[in-house]
Specification:
Number of helices: 2
Protein name: Pyrimidine dimer DNA glycosylase
Distance between the termini: 20 Å
Shape: globular
Pfam family, one: Pyr_excise
Helix content: 40-55%
InterPro entries: Pyr-dimer_DNA_glycosylase (IPR004260)
Number of strands: 0
Largest sheet: none
């Protein structure tokens, strides 16, 4: 799993953008309860921040 920086979202090709959406959706569902070293840091922040990032991806 990888989360792209928000400044790169507008430059992502369609396939990567769809992948980003799937990854964020999985994280919003608590990542299926499995830890992943690359993205576990998101759980240290407010869930609202992940929601805001997801909205940014969906608007693209």
């Amino acid at each position: 799993m990888r989360l792209w920086h928000q400044k790169l979202i507008s430059k992502l090709p369609r396939q990567q953008l769809l992948g980003q959406h799937r990854e964020i959706a999985a994280l919003r569902g608590n990542g299926w309860g499995r830890p992943h070293a690359t993205v576990n840091y998101v759980f240290k922040y407010s869930p609202y921040k992940l929601y805001q990032f997801h909205m940014l991806v969906l608007e693209r």
